[in-house]
What does this fold into?
Amino acid sequence: MWKRYMLAVLLFTSCMYLRPKQNSMSDLSQNDWAEGLVAASEAIVLDVRTEEEFESGYIPNAINIDIRLGAGFIDELNKLDKTAPYYVYCRSGARSAQAVQIMQDMGFAFSYNLLGGILAWEGEVME
It folds into this structure.
């Protein structure tokens, strides 16, 4: 009995290491996010808020794909180049953190979350 239990534990823990984990480096401060965006000429800014939120103001050159679309969000992500760097934001950073995790799970090579979202972007003056 205990052998079966140990085997199950070993299988479970080994599977955990096969799944890619979110890199804490995916969460960037406003300054680091902005610097990375400027440094990567092929970078894409992705706004994952609702269309209404997007229309109320957005970071220049952003494309909008609402994470709340569920499967529709996944469908739209599947149309994107997974090798390009993506700089992702939402209102406060929570939805964009989820979006970055989804993107990493889908095999996107480079996706970065703006900590604090657009609220932090608007609340801090860039030098």
In short: Residues 93 and 99 are 10 Å apart (CA to CA).
